[in-house]
Amino acid sequence: xxxxxxxxxxxxxxxxxxxxxxxxxxxxxxxxxxxxxxxxxxxxxxxxxxxxxxxxxxxxxxxxxxxxxxxxxxxxxxxxxxxxxxxxxxxxxxxxxxxxxxxxxxxxxxxxxxxxxxxxxxxxxxxxxxxxxxxxxxxxxxxxxxxxxxxxxxx
Length: 155
Known about the structure:
Layout: H1 12-28, H2 31-35, E1 38-46, E2 49-51, H3 54-67, E3 69-81, E4 84-94, E5 100-111, E6 117-129, H4 150-153
Parallel strand pairs: 1-6
Antiparallel strand pairs: 1-2, 3-4, 4-5, 5-6
């Protein structure tokens, strides 16, 4: 059985670590790598899309990152208990016409004993922004440790 520490039940520190690991993974935009953080029978609700396994999660992410270019994400712990974590997040991206958006969301996560995410329920809203309104300017990939988080950015 594959393990993905930190494992539940979560403490404040391990929940923060799990959130940052998820942020770092999604910022790679490597769908195959990101999908390995989920159980084989993972269950997602993402806007109007429902995903019921790891293979479908990978396909969803591949399509997402073709559509959402220059994607940069920040996640922040909202709450946790036992095997569950709630996060809020924002990400910036542009479409194929060069229009910029900031997407705001909340996710509820539930983890299996081995630390893989088995349930992910996301609610997301997209806000059109100008390029001048962007706040996430680090090079593509992991957000630098000294880059402000959502609260520090007033988001």
